[in-house]
Model the fold of this input.
Amino acid sequence: MKPNRTMSRVFLTFTFLFLYLPILSIVVYSFNESKLVTVWSGFSLKWYAALADDTELTQAAWLSLRIAVGAACVSVFIGTWIGFVLARYRRFSGKTLFTGMVNAPLVLPEVIQAMSLLLLFVALQKWTGWPSGRGIFTILVGHVMLCVSYVAITVQARLAGMNPALAEAAQDLGATPIKVFVDITLPMISQALVSGWLLSFTISLDNVVMSAFLSGPGSTVLPLVIFSRVRLGLNPEIHALGTIFIVVVSIVVVVNNSFMQKRMRQRDQDIKNALSPV
Done:
């Protein structure tokens, strides 16, 4: 058992190093004074100052953040209801088709989805005049289409593990279905909602394919700007921006995990107090 355990630890160590050393290198070289990423010439913060003066990069980052926040919020709103329907209503007319439509974005190649949406928007513009070109709205619709399925599956899995007797007891006591959903179901699936929001935000923020098909003049998002610059050579300003994102995301993940663990401990304590004899 001990040799196997040692080999497992060694394998996991090398796996994590392989995954996270490139991320660490971005952070290290963002403080490199040299413009060449392969040459370390001293510690400097000048690339962070240059990033503040890079209008194209900062505007693209701000646009990507706005779209990602919007896509995450809309995806959580729609995906929560989809997950609730799939978990609570076992049988209804057209459920097989409905389930297939929900799972389709998970299995279809993203380039096919992007091309389909592009053709849809082009046809709508030709027939009705709306939307007038591609831009923020079309990108937002594409990102929501990608993210809704992830939220729906996350919420469905959480609801499947929740005891339905709690909602039934509340209804027996006179609570309406909406009140049961707001006061009982939502608090119990809050962790799934937070996880779905963060996952949707991440998917939207770093999406390239869908954004490339659905973007237009004046709506170039951050991944497209980075992709175009990387083809001409790595830029230390991108390292500085990447470091800022890494720090912010790390803080959000730590805070979210701490919040979830605190909620779980509080829930376990409440259950223990409820079951303990008076």
User: Anything to note?
Assistant: Residues 119 and 125 are 10 Å apart (CA to CA). The chain has a mean pLDDT of 87. The chain is about 80% helix and 0% strand. The radius of gyration is 23 Å.
